[in-house]
From TrEMBL:
Entry EC number(s): 2.4.2.1
GO molecular function: purine-nucleoside phosphorylase activity
Domain Nucleoside phosphorylase: 29-266
Any GO BP annotation: nucleoside metabolic process
GO cellular component: a single term: cytoplasm
Organism ancestry: Bacteria, Bacillati, Actinomycetota, Actinomycetes, Micrococcales
Free-text function comment from the UniProt entry: The purine nucleoside phosphorylases catalyze the phosphorolytic breakdown of the N-glycosidic bond in the beta-(deoxy)ribonucleoside molecules, with the formation of the corresponding free purine bases and pentose-1-phosphate. Cleaves guanosine, inosine, 2'-deoxyguanosine and 2'-deoxyinosine.
Name of the protein in question: Purine nucleoside phosphorylase
Binding residues for phosphate: 35, 67, 89-91, 121, 209
Source organism of this protein record: Brevibacterium celere
Keywords (A to Z) from UniProt: Glycosyltransferase, Transferase
Keyword Transferase tagged: yes
Length: 269
């Protein structure tokens, strides 16, 4: 019997289930689709398998409105490679622990994925980035106070967000800006003072996901890219109160455009 308290064993059990459902030996690339990004999976190619997250070891139904609840295998039309689309993301604020947050990424690695694309919806500190603007993540600041890495395992995070993958994204859309993403724990939105602090530290984007997954991906040896959708200006920069409904609305409005952008990027990776 698999010990789901062992992160490696749990990831291998989940990967075995996903690969078997798809009828393939391994996947090639994984995508974590955050708020606004879900439509990209439909544009990549043919879906050959889709499993409710709760039926896969270590996964749970999504706790957040606007997030998908399945694990999907797509055969990419342009390349014939197989993408694992992780529509079920566990956020740190759900209280399941950092192992649960990293489980999706570790499962992707165990399923054979050598590369990963992380997406999210976030608040922007740059007034020039209107809601609906996609921004490549160039680096991150982890403000959660924790790490998915356990023990004396000293993983280098230099160039964590692949320069090669970012260059491909910019070839497809030369207008893409880059920025530093800061992850707070949530689930409350940041205060204006916290946003100012993040800006002083060097952040351009603030949100509640991504950095812990990115660290786990680097530990697993995956090359990764991150791309954020600015759904609103951050607190203190935007004068009106923040709301999750606003995040979903901005994601829906930008969905077709950013989904096509992401599908075009993935076809080149």
């Amino acid at each position: 019997m698999t010990d789901l308290n062992d992160p490696t064993a749990a990831a291998e059990a989940a990967a075995t289930t996903i690969n078997a459902a798809a009828g393939i030996a391994h996947h090639d690339i994984a995508l974590v689709l955050g708020s606004g990004w879900g439509g990209a999976a439909d544009l990549l190619g043919e879906t050959i398998s889709e499993i409710p997250a709760a039926e896969v070891p270590g996964f749970h139904a999504p706790a957040v409105a606007g997030h998908g609840g399945t694990l999907r295998t797509v055969r990419i039309t342009a390349t014939g490679r197989h993408a694992l689309v992780l529509g079920s993301r566990t956020h740190y604020y759900e209280g399941r622990g950092v192992r649960a947050v990293a489980h999706g990424v570790r499962t992707a690695a165990a399923a054979g994925c050598s590369s990963l694309v992380l997406t999210n919806g976030c608040g922007g500190l740059n007034r020039n980035w209107a809601p609906g603007t996609p921004v490549l993540i160039s680096d991150h600041i982890n403000l959660t106070g924790t790490s998915p890495i356990e023990g004396a395992n000293f993983v280098d995070l230099t160039d964590l967000y692949s320069p090669r993958m970012r260059a491909i994204a910019k070839e497809i859309d030369p207008t893409l800006d880059e920025g530093v993403y800061a992850q707070f724990t949530g689930p409350h939105y940041e205060t204006p003072a916290e946003v100012r602090m993040a800006g002083i530290l060097g952040a351009d984007l603030v949100g509640m996901s991504t950095t812990l997954e990115a660290i786990a991906a680097r530990q697993a040896g995956m090359e990764l890219m991150g791309i954020s959708l600015v759904t609103n200006l951050a607190a203190g920069i935007q004068e009106t109160p923040l709301s999750h409904a606003e995040v979903i609305e901005a994601g829906v409005a930008a969905g077709p455009r950013i989904s096509q952008l992401l599908a075009d990027i993935v076809a080149r990776l």
